[in-house]
Design a protein that fits this description.
Layout: E1 18-22, E2 29-30, E3 33-34, H1 38-53, E4 56-60, H2 77-87, E5 92-93, H3 102-109, E6 116-118, H4 127-130, H5 134-142, E7 146-149, H6 160-171, E8 176-178, H7 180-194, E9 200-204, H8 213-220, E10 225-228, H9 233-239, E11 243-244, H10 254-267, E12 270-272, E13 276-280, E14 289-293, E15 296-297, E16 302-306, H11 308-319, E17 323-327, H12 340-351, E18 355-358, H13 361-370, E19 378-379, H14 383-390, H15 396-399
The protein binds adenosine monophosphate (AMP).
């Protein structure tokens, strides 16, 4: 059950309605060929449901960054072809770089119930899309009666096709709902953060403290145990007077690290940091390797992964948990000699009988690469979006959906 209680595709009658669906079709392309169709497959249940309901289904999405203006290389044309194959039905792709406009209006006007139209890459409208332009938002809304957002990975961005459009749909009395993918993200992440089954353990790693400041701060208000590994941990070690050699460190955040330690102590939250480290004398897989206690990294060496005692410490904490949220690898997992800490955490999570959530980005990549994906309860499709969720921020794309 969602704590956010947003209206979903199951909560309104879409028969005969023109429904604009914001998907995440931002698929990887190589020479015009889709190299990973995960996002297309993930979008199918919502689309199929609306087709079955007899809606006129108008799909839109961004693709790539579109830095140099509209171009064929970033057209959604290959998505239209693959999507039609997957759905087993014809899709009317409106190739017009204007996205909305006459061609789109004509295509929508010709639709019958159950038909599917795909609009062109929303980023072809440049800043009108990325700055939430009123005109483009209204043009999108003009094509439809109702709106469904199913693009969680874009929901932290106040873009026209994610946020702006909803205002105009509301003005004309339409419904703004979330699709099945969004619903799943909201349910897992929302429940974990707002209403977790305890003990609730969060694991943070990755390169930088600075990118996770608000996450650490917010999670300390929610969790029973906060585990910090990865490159971030060395800022904490240095703040306590430890020797960290050449390890990653953000000197501007030494005070912050101490503040967070104090906050954890004041709140009775267990804050676990590495007690030992795998260190290397060069940032490469085949460097010389040693294991040393935290705070004792010699000059010329750098911390590349957590050590075996820390792996056990972290795994034991995870073993007791009923809810675990993980964002950020424990070390340089891309190098096989420094993947052990990240594997240990993934293994520990895979074993528990509780809810395990991977917060997208690098931890999702690590899980895939190391073969643990099917062992987790939920792997978020949005790295940036799930981090903002964990920071306690209201995501524009989620906020814009109607409450039930
Ligand atoms: P982030 O994007 O902040 O989640 O960082 C992910 C990256 O952090 C990965 O590419 C890891 O290789 C890197 N990383 C993790 N631990 C360390 C470390 N001890 N030293 C350098 N890089 C690290």
């Amino acid at each position: 059950m969602s704590t956010l209680n947003k209206k979903s595709v199951d909560d309104f009658n879409a028969k005969g309605r023109r429904v604009l669906v914001r998907c995440d079709f931002n698929v990887p392309l190589k020479d015009g060929v889709i190299t990973d169709e995960t996002r297309i497959v993930a979008a199918l249940p919502t689309i199929q449901k609306l087709i079955n309901d007899g809606a006129k289904v108008i799909l839109c999405s961004h693709l790539g960054k579109v830095k140099d203006g509209p171009n064929e290389g970033e057209s959604l044309a290959p998505v239209a072809v693959r999507l039609a194959e997957k759905l087993g039905k014809e899709i009317n792709f409106v190739a017009d770089y204007n996205v909305t406009g006459e061609a789109a209006t004509a295509a929508v006007a010709a639709m019958n119930e159950g038909d599917v139209v795909l609009l062109q890459n929303t980023r072809f409208r440049g800043k009108e899309e990325t700055k939430n332009g009123e005109e483009f938002s209204k043009e999108l809304a003009d094509l439809a009666d109702d709106y469904v957002c199913d693009a969680f990975g874009s929901s932290h961005r106040a873009h026209a096709s994610v946020a702006g459009v909803t205002k105009f749909i509301t003005e004309k009395g339409g419904v703004n709902a979330v699709g099945y993918l969004m619903q799943k993200e909201i349910d897992f992440l929302g429940n974990a953060v707002e209403n977790p089954v305890r003990p609730f353990v969060a694991i943070l790693g990755g390169a930088k403290v600075s990118s996770k400041i608000s996450v650490i701060n917010n999670l300390l208000d929610k969790v029973d145990t906060l585990i910090i590994g990865g490159g971030m941990a060395y800022t904490f070690s240095k703040a306590e007077g430890g020797k960290i050699g050449n390890s990653l460190c953000e000197d501007d955040f030494l005070d912050y690290a101490l503040e967070m330690k104090k906050k954890a102590a004041d709140k009775g939250v267990k804050l676990l940091l590495p007690v030992d480290n795998r260190i290397g004398d060069d940032f490469s897989n085949d460097c010389n390797i040693q294991i040393v206690p935290t705070g004792e990294i010699p000059d010329g060496w750098e911390g590349m992964d957590i050590g075996p005692a820390t792996e056990k410490l972290f795994a034991d904490a995870v073993a007791e948990a009923k809810t675990v949220v993980w964002n950020g690898p424990m070390g340089c997992f891309e190098m096989s000699n420094f993947a052990s800490g990240t594997i240990a955490v993934a293994e520990a999570m895979a074993k528990i009988d509780g809810t395990t959530i991977i917060g997208g980005g690098d931890s999702a990549a690590a899980c895939n690469q190391l073969g643990f994906s099917d062992k987790m309860s939920h792997i978020s499709t949005g790295g940036g979006a799930s981090l903002e969720f964990l920071e306690g921020k209201e995501l524009p794309g989620v906020a814009a959906a109607d409450n039930k």
